[in-house]
Amino acid sequence: MDQTIQEYNDSMSAEDKAICQKLRQEIDKHLPGAESKIWHRHPVWFINGNPIVGYSKLKGCIRLLFWSGQSFDEPELLPEGSFKAAEARYTDLEQIDTDLLKRWLGKSVKIQWDYKNIVKRKGVLERLV
């Protein structure tokens, strides 16, 4: 286990910590080859240096963010930002649908936009897979 992610989770309230722990457990289970670390102060998982999924504390919720999520064609994921990211928000552990999360994580491996090189391409995203 990456200690810094555990420290992040441990810094949360009991309710938020339970959500973070469940998200981490499911992400680690379904993205076994992904690198995980704290990136911009939040837990993020990467495949070949490209950010795939992460979560963060927002006022009143935990946000699960998929960098390429707008391309997943999943109505439960809401667009976030001006690129291809999409999110789900949780205020209670019971809101996490593990079957749905597993499907999203599967799509996160198959559908990726190249955020790793976005600066080099001056803000232009290219589809990887």
**Overall 3D shape:** globular
Number of domains: 1
The total count of strands amounts to 6
The largest sheet, given as strand count, sense and whether it forms a barrel, is: 6 strands, antiparallel
Tell me the series of helices and strands, N- to C-terminal.
Answer: HHEEEEEEH
Give the rounded overall mean pLDDT: 92
- Beta content comes to 25-35%
What is the level-2 CATH architecture name?
Answer: Alpha-Beta Complex
Can you identify the CATH class?
Alpha Beta
Low-confidence stretches: none
Distance between the termini: 28 Å
Layout of SSEs?
Blueprint: H1 3-10, H2 14-30, E1 35-39, E2 42-47, E3 50-58, E4 61-66, E5 78-79, E6 86-90, H3 98-110
Antiparallel strand pairs: 1-2, 2-3, 3-4, 4-6, 5-6
Task: Provide a compact summary of the structure.
By secondary structure, this protein is α+β, with helices and mostly antiparallel strands. The chain has 3 helices and 6 strands, in the order H-H-E-E-E-E-E-E-H.
Describe the structure.
The model has no long low-confidence stretch (mean pLDDT 92). This protein starts with a helix and ends in a 19-residue tail after the last helix. It has 129 residues and is of the alpha+beta class. Helix content is 29%, strand content 26%. The protein has a single domain, classed as Aspartate Aminotransferase, domain 1 (Alpha-Beta Complex). The protein has a 6-stranded antiparallel beta sheet, covered by helices on one side. The protein contains 3 helices and 6 strands; from the N terminus they run ααββββββα.
Which features would summarize this protein structure in a list?
alpha+beta; single chain; 129 residues; 26% strand; 3 helices; 6-stranded antiparallel beta sheet; Aspartate Aminotransferase, domain 1
